[in-house]
Amino acid sequence: MEEVLKEVLKEIKPEEEEQKNLKKTSEKLVEKAKEVSSDFEISVEPKLVGSAARGTWLSGERDIDLFLMFPKDAPQEKLEKIGLEIGKKVSEGKAREQYAEHPYVNTNIDGFDVDIVPCYDIDDPTNLRSSVDRSPHHQEYIKGWLTPERAEQVLLLKKFLKGIGAYGAELKVHGFSGYLCELLITHFGPFQELIKSVSEWGPNKVINLESKRDQEELQDLFPNQPLIFVDPVDPGRNVAASVSKENYATFIRAAQDFMREPKKEFFFPNKPPTSSQELEDLIDSRGTEIFMISLDIPFDLVLDIVYPQLRKTKKTLIKRLEEADFRVLRSGIWAEENKALILLELKVPKLPTVKKHIGPPLGIDARPFIQKYINSEEALAGPFVNEDGRLVFELKRDRDEASQVLQKTLELRKGFGKHIEKSIDAEGYEIIEGKKVVAKAEEVNAEEFLGDYLSKCLPWYR
Question: Which coenzymes or cofactors are required (predicted)?
Answer without folding.
Answer: Mg(2+)
